[in-house]
Design brief:
283 residues; alpha/beta; Rossmann fold; Pantoate--beta-alanine Ligase, Chain: A,domain 2; six-stranded parallel β-sheet; three-stranded antiparallel β-sheet; 9 helices; 9 strands; 19% strand
């Protein structure tokens, strides 16, 4: 069986922009899928979704230091460029943008995007500066690639909403789309950080999605959210999770809701051992 063509790897910004310009000259729409590498089926689903939105797909791979706080897992975050490129080749991704840290943050770099509102609650208090780092690197990626559409996973739902708001506030013409969360058969949301889980923790981890689904079902049925959340917290803590938050929020504003009266999300973040897991379920 003939091997698939390798995905062209770009580390030089001028070369990447020249390639994108050639695609645009031919009338192609360009779609960006930003990632931090350690690719899995969730990323591949985003790339497949991107392919339905344009003729050319660029996947970026960059472990962004500005979104990691002190004591977080920047140093041990999984990195495997060869494996990532092999997976991108399987999907037919048209280009891999893999900048060095010095390209993204050259000497003298001193600009950072301040975000508020959507970034203030949920993960915000537990990861100070995180969403500022996310917004800064994403806006840089949008400026570098110049896509028509950019696709982000809904597993990081707060991140998706912050990026949508930042793009709108800064008048980017790009359309920000979400891609559905991809799960294991037992419900655990796919994440590069799942590989941190010990075997016993991996057996417990799907309980997070199960509890969120139960909270969503009760909230959708009209129950007041406060007692439903309290029961969910108790269930997660009994299973061994150290919960940072469990909330039922408006899907647009991310403001907590007392009762569900429109599109909403149940969102949670919790530690299982050394691993921080996040997940959300639509209501």
């Amino acid at each position: 069986m003939p091997s698939r063509p390798q995905t062209p790897r770009f580390t030089d910004l001028a070369a990447l922009r020249a390639q994108v310009a050639l695609w645009r000259a031919s009338g192609a729409r360009v779609v960006l899928v930003p990632t931090m590498g350690a690719l899995h089926r969730g990323h591949l689903a985003l790339i497949a979704h991107a392919r339905t939105l344009g003729e050319r797909v660029v996947a970026s791979i960059f472990v962004n230091p500005t979104q990691f706080g002190p004591g977080e897992d920047f140093a041990r975050y999984p990195r495997d460029a060869a494996a990532d490129l092999a997976l991108l080749a399987q999907t037919g991704t048209d280009a891999a943008w893999m900048p060095e840290a010095a390209t993204m943050y050259p000497p003298g770099f001193s600009t950072r995007i301040a975000v508020g509102g959507l970034a203030d609650g949920l993960c915000g208090p537990f990861r100070p500066g995180h969403f500022s780092g996310v917004a800064t690197v994403v806006v840089k990626l949008l400026n570098q690639v110049g896509p028509d559409v950019a696709v982000f996973g809904e597993k990081d739902f707060q991140q998706l909403r912050v990026i949508q708001q930042a793009a709108a506030d800064l008048d980017h013409a790009v359309v920000i789309r979400g891609g559905p969360t991809v799960r294991e058969a037992d419900g655990l949301a796919l994440s590069s950080r799942n590989r941190y889980l010990e075997p016993a923790e991996r057996e417990v981890a799907p309980r997070l999605h199960a509890v969120l689904s139960q909270v969503a079902a009760e909230a959708l049925a009209g129950a007041a959210t406060a007692p439903v959340i309290a029961r969910g917290l108790a269930a997660l803590e009994a299973a061994g999770f150290a919960v940072q938050y469990l909330a039922v929020c408006d899907a647009g504003t991310l403001a907590p809701v007392a009762r569900v009266a429109g599109p909403a999300r149940v969102l949670a973040a919790a530690h299982l051992g050394r691993t921080r897991l996040i997940d959300n379920v639509a209501v």
